[in-house]
Structures are given as structure tokens and as C-alpha cells.
Design brief:
The protein is α+β, with helices and mostly antiparallel strands. Helices cover 58% and strands 14% of the residues. The protein has one domain: Winged helix-like DNA-binding domain superfamily/Winged helix DNA-binding domain (Arc Repressor Mutant, subunit A), CATH 1.10.10.10. The chain is built from four helices and three strands; from the N terminus they run αβααββα.
């Protein structure tokens, strides 16, 4: 039922916002590049689709966490580039603390009860 090399849809969904904010904290980017970067950083274990990513990016814009701008790419095509706003940096900081709390809690539980795994 659970494959060790692929994350559940629920975990991917829950982690999408902090992952996007973290990627954009590195610098502005466009949708397809974000998809490729998360795939690379996760060694292929997180695979986003455009149909999943763009609604989240649009929501982040409505929430004023990111802003976007159309720019011409090197190949002459226009791409919508996204960048983190100050409110997004604040949200990333808070989200990081939440994820670290979950991570530390699970690490403690698994260290103290390794036989239950």
C-alpha cells in the first residue's frame, strides 16, 4: 500500500506551500522550473504537476505571499516569474518552525520506541 520511494498525496499536498516558499526564498522562478527543482532536490520522490502547482501559486498570490511578473525568456517566450514577498518570508519562517516541530517530535518518538517501527 505504501511505497518507500514515493510520498503520499496527503503529505505532498501538506508540504507544497512550505516547499514553494522555500524554493522562492532562493530567488525568483517560474512554474516549470519549480517543478523540476523540487523533483531534483527530492531525488524524484516529490513530483508535482502543472495542474497541482499553478492553483497553489495563484492562491499564494491572492494571499500576498508571492508576486509575479511576466518576463521574456532567453528563447523569446514569455514566462510568469514568481518571487517571495515579505509576507511570504514571514509565512516561511512560521511554516519552518511548524515542520521542525513535527520533525523533532517524530525523531524523538522513533528514537525512544524503535521497536515499534
Amino acid at each position: 500500500m505504501y511505497a518507500a520511494n514515493v510520498l503520499t498525496k496527503e503529505l505532498v499536498a501538506a508540504s507544497t506551500v512550505p516547499l514553494i516558499l522555500s524554493l522562492l526564498a532562493r530567488g525568483e522562478s517560474y512554474g516549470y522550473a519549480l517543478i523540476q527543482e523540487v523533483r531534483e532536490v527530492s531525488a524524484g520522490r516529490i513530483q508535482w504537476t502543472e495542474g497541482m502547482l499553478y492553483p497553489v501559486l495563484h492562491w499564494l498570490e491572492r494571499e500576498s505571499l508571492v508576486e509575479s511578473e511576466w518576463k521574456e525568456a532567453e528563447n523569446g517566450r514569455k514566462r510568469k516569474y514568481y518571487r517571495l514577498r515579505e509576507k511570504g518570508r514571514t509565512a516561511l519562517k512560521a511554516g519552518r518552525e511548524e515542520w521542525l516541530t513535527v520533525h523533532e517530535t517524530l525523531t524523538q518518538l522513533w528514537k525512544t520506541h524503535p521497536s515499534s517501527i
